[in-house]
Amino acid sequence: MTTTTPIADADFDFVRAIVRADSAIALEAGKEYLVESRLLTLARSQGLDSVGALVAQLRQRPASDLRYKVVEAMTTNETSFFRDITPFDALRTHIIPDLLVRRAQCQQIRIWCGAASTGQEPYSLAMLLREHFPALSSWKVQITATDISREVLEKARAGRYGQLEVNRGLPAPLLLKYFERDGVHWQIKPVLKSMVSFREMNLVGPWMIGEADIVLLRNVLIYFEVDVKRQILGNIRRVMRPDGYLLLGSAESTMNIDDNYKRVPVGRANAYQAAAAQERAA
Ligand SMILES: C[S@@+](CC[C@H](N)C(=O)[O-])C[C@H]1O[C@@H](n2cnc3c(N)ncnc32)[C@H](O)[C@@H]1O
Q1: DSSP H stretches of helix in 103-158
Q2: pTM for this entry
Q3: How many domains does the chain fold into?
Q4: Is 116's C-beta closer than 6 angstroms to any atom of ligand 1?
Q5: Residue range 67-86: mean pLDDT, rounded
Q6: Domain of 153?
Q7: For residue 1, is pLDDT > 50?
Q8: Is 125 close to ligand 1, i.e. is its CB under 6 Å away?
Q9: How much distance in Å is there from the Cα of 162 to the middle of ligand 1?
């Protein structure tokens, strides 16, 4: 049986400060066990036998690639196909039909999926567009997916998923239509893969993202403190078209953080528009 010694308080504080500075992820007191277990895996992959030894290396070379790896190890990459379904229902029943009318002239829709993890979210979106909106096949549709973690982006770009991953949320007909079996894996077909481009982007670093009609930023704000959430929601208003839509995760809201958004009443989805857009439409 392997036992792990709890991380030293000074090491926890050191790691916490680095993770906060580089990713804004807030590791409150009580997360020592999480830090210990994630960093032990990283320590072993570096040929070290303890988290203490890993942190000692980090202290010696704070500007090294190891620092990036420590931050990456502290990201939570949980995701699944059509996660929480309600935002996808909102896209199908309200948001895309609305944009089909509003963008009829330019025939272009740009979607940004921030914090996209291993790709299930943008690929779900691509399937939804192909299945329900054939008219878009002649439009310019751009799905840009970003994340801070290079490891998840690599997996997302590869588009290869295990059986357990495709069992989570992906209806069987879509699996058979858009994936090919490859041994114990399922490989996403080029027709879908080509619809999504992946890029590294830190939500608290420079924003290298163009204008977007739809922004999905789901299940990431929960990791940040309120001032960081406010800063990110403000930045989104600057990249989102004035009549664009923002979709947040089921436990996330703009309420009491940024009053410049109004909730769009579409099912149980946490969908928002800039308040000014709704006033104009009223
Ligand atoms: C829980 S996953 C959410 C994935 C997907 N949006 C979903 O809802 O299924 C959170 C993702 O946020 C990313 N993340 C955390 N901090 C970030 C930051 N500062 N900038 C960009 N991405 C970040 C993590 O790497 C992780 O992949």
Answers
A1: 120-132, 150-158
A2: 0.96
A3: 2
A4: yes
A5: 98
A6: 86-281
A7: no
A8: no
A9: 20
> Do 195 and 68 fall into the same domain?
no
118 shares a domain with 47 = no
Residue of the CA atom closest to atom 16 of ligand 1: 23
- Residue 5: the pLDDT is 72
Measured from the CB, is residue 117 less than 6 Å from ligand 1? yes
Do 134 and 217 belong to one domain?
Answer: yes
Residue 64 neighbours by CB distance under 10 Å: 12
Longest dimension (CA), the chain: 65
Q: What is the pLDDT of residues 32-60, one digit of tens each?
A: 999 999 999 999 999 999 999 999 999 99
How far is Cα 259 from Cα 209, in angstroms, rounded to an integer?
23
| 112-to-137, 144, 218, 254 alpha-carbon distances in Å | 18, 5, 11, 18
- What is the Cα Rg of the chain in Å? 20
DSSP string, 246-261: EEE-TT---TTT-TTE
> Which of 147, 155, 208, 252 has the most ligand 1 atoms within 8 A of CB, as the residue to mutate?
147
Residue 79 in any domain: the answer is no
φ, ψ at 216 (rounded to 5°) = -105, 120
Q: At what angle do helices 51-60 and 9-23 cross, to 10 degrees?
A: 60
The single-letter code of the amino acid at 251 is: A
* 268 within some domain: yes
Asked whether 203 lines ligand 1 (CB < 6 A), one says yes
Determine the length of the chain: 282
272 inside domain = yes
CA nearest ligand 1 atom 12, residue: 115
Return all residues near 99 (Cβ < 8 A) that are at least 6 apart. 109, 213, 214, 245
Q: Is residue 222, in this structure, part of any structural domain at all?
A: yes
